[in-house]
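Appendix B. One record, verbatim.
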Amino acid sequence: MEHKKQNFLQGAAMLAAATVLVKVIGALYKIPLKLAIGDQGYSYFITAYDIYSVLLMISTAGLPVAMSRMISQATALGHYNRVRRIYETCRTIFLIIGIASTLLMMVLCRQLAELLNQPDAWAAILFLGPCALLMGVLSTYRGFFQGQGNMAPTSVSQVLEAVFKLVVGLAAAYAVLRYTQSVPLAAGGAILGVTVSCLVSAIYLRRKLVPAYRALPRTSEAVEGYGATAKQVLSIAIPITIGAAGLQLLTVVESGLYMGQLLDIIGGGLYMKEMVSPQMDAQAVADTLKGIYNMTQTIFNMPCAFMIPITTSVLPAITSYITLSDHKAVKATEESAARIAGLLALPCTVGLILLAEPVMALLGGYSGVRLELAGQLMQILGLCVFLYAIIQYTNVVLQSHGYAHVPVINMLVCGVVKLIVVYVLVGNPQVGILGAPIGAALCYFFIGALNLIAISRLVPQKPRILTNMLRSFIPAAVMGVAVWGTTYVLTQVLSISSRALLCGVPVAVGGLVYAVCVVFFRGITREDCLLLPKGEKLARFFK
């Protein structure tokens, strides 16, 4: 048990470290990109990503989970011939889906842009098309390594992606904007960085995969044919894929719905009249508002990304213990992951709620009416960070125990309800674009609640999820008081107006206070620390 849990937490720590670096590089990419192409151009960039994400989820949501789970089971039993068969089968499935997705985006780019009420997004959609195929290839490689508990290749490949996306994407965006003066084409140029980064990452993982694949021991167990293996893979992948791709499809539909509602209330003179001018018609204002919301979503996604390493790493560990019928280890691993997820999510939630405007002023470059709106959007999404952590964690617990269809149903039902809420709220001029994050918050809350109810009914040796995730609540609350006090002193006593100081100083003070309080209030256990890489030093604080 100790060895397996150590693998899980070491893998989580490795992916988390890579995620920190990737998100820093991603911020260095998206923030200047948004400043270069503006809110309108950024909205085109995100619209292309929304469509791409639907196709991406089809090839990278359920299939990697199924692949990782099946390889983990086969590895735990020493059945390496089966590992080979699973990999080869999944590779074929990934390639078929990737080619179809790429052709769809490139051939129908203009039609897709028109469908989402953003006709100028066509170039970004076109240039992003090849990534659908490349991401299928990447997912095959990553699923192979993650199923064996080896997170290093995935971590390195993610960093490579981020670096090349930053360099090539920004260079292409600035070059296209300079020579064409076209914001839609500049948004498309930015996408080139994504395509190149995926290609570089695929080449790296391929070089790592070949020797690892050849080094697999030769074993004597009989393996199923490719057809039977494909059926097993798809039986696990399809429910997860329907949920992930279905929810992402609902996100695309939601975007089209609220853009339509914004065009109606702006065109009717009922909303954001101060932004309408001869230079900005209703379409331009709606694109701008969407761009502001997309920027707050980009900031929201940064802390949410820290939840992914925990869930990615815990799935093979839990699956291995279930395969070996070690129920005590299953519960212990699930609760360790819950504590770490809460440790990361709670301070991010509190921080984004309290520092919404300073964060958006610094990272988004906003002021005046746009800053006020961005701050309100960010506060609502800040609340969603903890809810998102609950969803990600409970999804993996249910998937690991063989109930992959349950979170799928929960997500789809709540996603449909979200569409209705967003349509109604955004169409109200008193609410407008704020209706979009409000709908997201309600959706996340109900998905998490339904997942928790399902776990309490279906999972043996039920983990204490909320108890462990909320273990860091008091440290986060104390941190919040420190952040608020620091902001008050800076603004009201010292009259400081520097955006960097108003954001950076409260974050630094809050981070220090939170770290001290986590130790004092035992936000995580000494056992958790001992299972982390080089956690012996940290564990001394928890004696």
